Each structure stands twice: as structure tokens, then as C-alpha cells.
Amino acid sequence: MALPPNFGQAFDLSSLGKPAPTAPNIALGKVVTKENLAADFVELSMTKPVVLLCWTTRAPHSLDTLAILDKVNKEDDGKWELGSVDVDSAPEVASALQARTVPYAVALVGGQPIPLFEEAMTESDIKSVITKLLTIAAEQGIGEVPEEKLEPEEAEALAALEAGDLIGAEDAYKRFLARKPQDPYAKLGLTHTQLQLRIVGVDLAAAIADAQAEPADIDRALRAADVEVATGSVEPAFIRLLALVKATSGDERTRVKDRLLELFSLVDPADPRVIKARADLANALF
Description:
Pfam families: TPR_20 (PF14561). By secondary structure, this protein is of the alpha/beta class.
């Protein structure tokens, strides 16, 4: 199987300082090298999920994360494979995985990479991420669906959504996020719920017509973009808000940019429309 197209590019972690003179014996997970990445890990991901963690002795917290992953991996009894990437010994692998910092974890499912996290996380958070990963893999016919235990606030939010109680769901997600600020599902759930709250009672056609009549009106543009994304018309929403980012400055620009980033998070990051819009936003801002 072919390696990622950027395999072999330089990987710079100079901001962390020089490598430790004597690296400890790290025997957690299977060592990933340039030579075995494809054969031992990409190929294996066709039959079970693989998690690769990039670490360095120059960042002790990345070693803590590796230890947690190793513990969880053993508890899961071989349901997924753990690969250990020492960025100092295998900079080519770190580059291929597009690691920008450590710890950086990326999963491989069916040969495709799925970024997991790029900061130190608690054992509870890591277990939650792995459970979600196993669920995604099972949906693709790789491995079995795990018995997922929802966080209490998440269960409360989902029950509220099922009952049509958006306010209750928002409150539950806010409490979930307050307790676990970095949880990606808490962030996504809150963003999605708040979008639904903003478009309650909004008429799609009227919102778009109003925005087209007054393209410089930020409130109208945001309302139209909300209903467009909620109904799957993401490209017009992105184009609308990108035009406003270019036409505004200061607090107004920040308001539009922040809403645009929220809407990006509600769409598959691999969607070409999101990729293009993110590039356009970066060009508009810088």
C-alpha cells in the first residue's frame, strides 16, 4: 500500500529544544518506523483500527499520554493496535502523519487517517475517543461496535433533543463542556444544538431573500447562512460569510469569522467545500 504523499518531508520540533541525551527505554505500543508504517500498520487497519501516537522525550506529557493509551489498549484486549512514533527517531513518520505538536494521535481505519487529538488528555477522555473510534470503524465493517457508555450530560442532552427540548439540550451540553472543555463531542453537540435554536421559526426562503436584499447586513447574512447549513446548502453559506469577512473589520469581522468557524465544524472536514472555504478564509484574514 502506498504511503501518504507527503512522506519524507522534514519535521521540525526545534521549539521543544534538543533531544534528551539518553532516551528512556520506551516499550509501550509497537514502534513505528518509515520501513514498517505501510506493511505493519496501514495494512493492519484494513482489519482492525490502528492508533498511532507521536511523542518525544522532550515533552514528558506526551510520554504520559503514551502510557495511558498503552493501558487502555491492554484493557481493550486487542480490539485495536497501538503504534508508538518517536518523532526524534522517526521524523519522516511524524511528517507523513502531519503531526505539528506532541502528543499527537491519529487513527488509521481502512487505510484512511483520522486525526484524534493533539494535546494531553485524561484517561477518561482518551477512553471516550477510542470508543468513538471503534464505533466509526465498525460502521465501515472493521471490528465490532463497542458497548458505549455515554457521559451523563451527553445522555441528558440526547434525551432532551429526542423530546424536542432544545433549551434543555443546550444546558446539558454546556455543563458537559464545562466539565470536559476539550471533549470534541461536547463541542459539536453544543454547536449543533445552538444552530437549531437560532433557526427555530425561521423561513428559509425569506431568510435568503432578506440576505440577498441587504448583503452587508450581518444579522441577515448570519441568519441565512444558518438555515442554509441546516438544510445542507453549505457552499452558498460559506460564500456569503466569506464575502462579509472580506468586507468587514474589527469586532464585526471577528463575529462573522467565529460563526463561519462554527459552521465549518458541522460539516465533514474532508468535504471539498470546507477545505476550499477554510483556505479562502485564511487568505482573507492574512
